[in-house]
Amino acid sequence: MIIITKIRLYPNGFILSEKQFDDIPEYYKVKEILNRYYYYYDENSQYNLTSEEDYFIIIHGHYIFLDSDYNEKNDELPGKLLETYKFDYDRFLNLLDYIGGRYIIIIGNKEKVEFYPDATAARTTYYSLKENIASSHVNLINDLIPHTKDSLAEKAELLKYH
């Protein structure tokens, strides 16, 4: 017996934007953050979204906290990162050194959002200079907000989407 399954575009992906979109893949879910941002994610993705006061953090992907000095469980890590990001930025940066996995940390408030990839940048993040949108897949951004390719990059195959 042959079973034909539908191809899942942009598996385990995400989008963070200030805009709402209707044309996202049907297996993507959405969460509104701080009444300003929309976080779209593949329903099969592992993620942790935490917000408090006017700040939020998303850890999208697979991760484990490795530092025994803090002895944080994975589900406690986002809160600890958010606290240190707000009050002790140097400590926040040091904590990042003890997270293993394939993930992206998205953290910020209503004024700014920052992205911190895992140590090898294995979880890709693309963004647009045209709109406030970031995504795990460059073509997902282009599906939602069409962009033209850079004319200089057209001559260099590896630069087409940079």
Question: How would you characterize this protein structure?
Answer:
This protein has helices spanning 77-87, 89-96, 138-144; strands spanning 14-17, 28-33, 37-42, 47-52, 55-65, 99-109, 113-117, 126-127, 133-135. With 162 residues, the chain is an alpha+beta fold. It has a single domain (14-159), classed as Glutamine Phosphoribosylpyrophosphate, subunit 1, domain 1 (4-Layer Sandwich), CATH 3.60.20. The protein is globular. The mean pLDDT is 90.
Fold topology:
Blueprint (H helix, E strand, L loop, with lengths): L13 E4 L10 E6 L3 E6 L4 E6 L2 E11 L11 H11 L1 H8 L2 E11 L3 E5 L8 E2 L5 E3 L2 H7 L18
Antiparallel strand pairs: 1-3, 1-9, 2-3, 4-5, 5-6, 6-7, 8-9
Helix pairs in contact: 1-2
Task: Describe what is shown at a glance.
The protein is an alpha+beta fold and 162 residues long.
Assign the CATH topology: Glutamine Phosphoribosylpyrophosphate, subunit 1, domain 1
Oligomer: single chain
Into which percent range does the helicity of residues fall? Answer: 10-25%
Q: What is the count of distinct domains?
A: 1
CATH fourth-tier homologous superfamily: Aminohydrolase, N-terminal nucleophile (Ntn) domain
Strand content: 25-35%
Q: Strands across the major sheet, in which order?
A: 2-3-1-9-8
Largest sheet: 5 strands, antiparallel
Mean pLDDT score:
90
The count of helical stretches stands at: 3
Low-confidence stretches: none
**Alpha carbon gap, first and last residue:** 44 Å
Tell me the radius of gyration.
17 Å
CATH architecture: 4-Layer Sandwich
